[in-house]
Amino acid sequence: MSSFDTLTDIDFVDVDADAIQNSIITIFEGLNGSPLYPGDPRRLFLMALAQIIIQQQALLNHNKKVDLLKYASGPVLDHIGALYDVTRLPAESAITTLQFNLSIPLTSATIIPAGTRVGPQGSGGTIYFETSQVIEIPAGGISGTVTASCSVPGVSGNGFLPGQINTLIDPLPFVQSVVNLTEGSGGAEAETDAAFRERIRTAPESFSVAGPEGAYRYWAMTASPSIVDVAVTSPEPREVVVVPLLHGGELPSQDVLDDVAAVLNDRTVRPLTDLVTVQAPETVSYDITLTYYVDRARAAEAVSIQDAVSAAVDAYRLWQKSKLGRDINPSELIWRVMSAGALRVEITTPVFTSVGELQIAHDATVNVTYGGLADD
Fold first, then answer.
1. Which residues contact 234 (CB under 8 A, 6 or more apart)?
2. Buried (b) or exposed (e) across 10-40, using 16+ Cβ within 10 A?
3. What is the per-residue pLDDT across 191-232, written as a single tens digit (0 to 9) for each?
4. For residue 235, what is the DSSP state?
5. How far apart are CA 250 and CA 6, in angstroms?
6. What end-to-end distance do the CA atoms of the chain give, in Å?
7. Among the three residues 65, 85, 112, which one is the final residue of a domain in this structure?
8. Which of 60, 61, 86, 295 is 20 to 30 A off residue 152, Cα-Cα?
9. 34 assigned to some structural domain
10. What distance lies between CA 233 and its chain's CA centroid?
11. What single-letter DSSP state applies at residue 34?
12. Which of 70, 108, 91 is CA-nearest to residue 198?
């Protein structure tokens, strides 16, 4: 739970429309010495004037509230972040490892220039990956590997499986084929307001080097906007284990882990005596098997309720894997399905299961059955 959740809502000016309107009419009646009846042109004029004042009050209240971190968004949030030397993380391109294969071994070294473009099959050049550095295939060698980044920042480069990025856009002599060895991953959209707001809130942790748990967590989250949660533990003195989690419960690739490690091992961040290990979360698998029923009195809504239940189950699956150490909680699933319109839910799995702070729950199989109509 964020500390923002414990803060009560706040208004800087009165935005009660009825109170403002009644106040204007009461003041005028007091000054005029006579009541204003409905239909009186003067009353209609004052009511129109009150609407303008109400809108101005609401705008003033909004503009004042967005000066506070809890309510700030967009450029205003960027300016608040600047006070703490915290900037919004830009969109990041997905990365992969490419292997270039020669048609024959050569007697001299072969150079693959930086910026060589390779696209997914059938993409038409709309999206491609560029090599990040020059690679040299030595004399007698037939292949070489290099990291490449997607031309389009964001998540569009994620998910290309090994072997799917295989179209050489920039032909090279003696290069017979090219293929990605790793899945495209690590691409992320620009940091959201919610994630940026939380990083600003925890920015004071950065005033210390990464020794306290909060400092390690803060610095780890600066490595990529795709990171939504970080667990930090110390199994032995001087040993620190850092576990990041990505959006949608995605496990971090080795490239993301390397980026986090690079940030945490910077000489201005890591205490000299700390041995830092960055690793992916351990997954705890669970199944979803349930049957639900719809109230016979709502038979006309049965189809829409089935759609709502399906969406509720998907939302539960995402919720369950969006935070490290979140216990597998069947009560949450039942509540969501019943909130979607189910009358009764019979759940076989999952059962309540504790999840460790370095673990993440991932659903394996999902079997949701509509049991039909039932009487209340």
1. 240, 241
2. eeeeebeeeebbeebbeebeeeeeeebeeee
3. 999 889 988 988 887 776 667 888 899 999 999 888 999 999
4. S
5. 29
6. 36
7. 65
8. 86
9. yes
10. 23
11. S
12. 70
